[in-house]
Write a structure and sequence with these properties.
Layout: H1 2-30, E1 39-48, E2 53-65, E3 69-71, H2 73-83, H3 86-102, E4 115-120, H4 122-127, H5 130-141, E5 148-153, H6 154-159, H7 161-173, E6 177-183, H8 192-195, E7 200-203, H9 205-210, H10 215-230, E8 234-237, H11 243-251, E9 256-257, H12 268-275
Parallel strand pairs: 2-4, 4-5, 5-6, 6-7, 7-8, 8-9
Antiparallel strand pairs: 1-2, 1-9, 2-3
Helix pairs in contact: 1-2, 3-5
The protein binds ligand C2E and calcium ion (3 copies).
The site of ligand C2E has 21 residues, from strand 2, helix 2 and strand 6.
Organism: Pseudoxanthomonas wuyuanensis
Protein name: Diguanylate cyclase/phosphodiesterase
Subcellular location: Cell membrane
Amino acid sequence: AKVAGKNCYRFYSRAMDQAVERRVRLEQELRGAWERGELSLVYQPVFRLSDSRIVGAEALLRWQHPEMGMVAPSVFIDVAEQSGLIEAIGPRVLRAACAAAARWSIGSDPLDQLFVSVNVSPRQLRSGDLPEMVAECLRETGLAASRLHLELTETAVISDEAHASALLATLHRSGVKVWLDDFGTGFSGLSHLRRVPVDGVKIDRSFIADMLRDPDDLALTTAIIAMAHSLGITVVAEGVEKEGQFNILRERGCDLAQGYWLGYPVTAAEFAQLVT
Ligand code: C2E
Ligand code: CA
Ligand code: CA
Ligand code: CA
């Protein structure tokens, strides 16, 4: 038993070493990845449920490494966040997304101007110079503030509510819209919505995934929609993979939706084709 225990220990420690090695490698490779052209953005269309029209897109980062292939964002965003590399990558993502959206203007009706939604990591939120960086990107690209949406995770905002509230208030005054991402997973409850100035919540896709077979998830989704609307907040459902989900969400008055059933993330050029 002793020997087995020892082997076991060695096995786990080797596995842990490998995990650490992989992270170190990813961090090294991620440094300079943008300059080498390995990082790019794709855009997933966001639909308005009342008329099924595309009203904007979420920018999602992709990393195509020459040897490792596609690295999942859930993996490399975490590495970027832990290592601080996100502070270099984040502003580039924001600038690229604003530049792309500035070219999407369709027609002259200001209501027809599509928005671009950009993910902001907890570290970027803490760094403090976010409002300035955002203002600079808008100035440089000529994108109207109202067409930029920032997605912040519910947990990042709640973990430092005082700081986040002040920051969000500044962004809000500048005309930029703020959405809480992965909403419902932080167990924060809806009470925070009264104290933090947000324009919208994105219901986490885990609730949407189970909505058709789990009455609890359907009840929760319905409650989020009703509560958000009573506070004048827009509701986005993400991860819509089935027509049935789409129909229920529309019936319950959800405002916007995105997901594979509606549209996969595509390049900026492909997205422009979709909307013209
Ligand atoms: P997220 O912000 O929740 O983004 C939505 C994720 O759901 C994306 O995964 C998207 O491709 C995926 N998705 C969209 N529709 C469906 C669907 O119908 N079914 C399923 N199963 N998935 C769907 P992706 O692109 O792998 O990104 C993962 C996470 O990485 C994002 O989650 C976000 O937290 C982070 N991320 C991606 N790009 C950026 C970025 O530029 N900056 C930061 N800070 N984080 C990013
Ligand atoms: Ca997001
Ligand atoms: Ca999300
Ligand atoms: Ca469930």
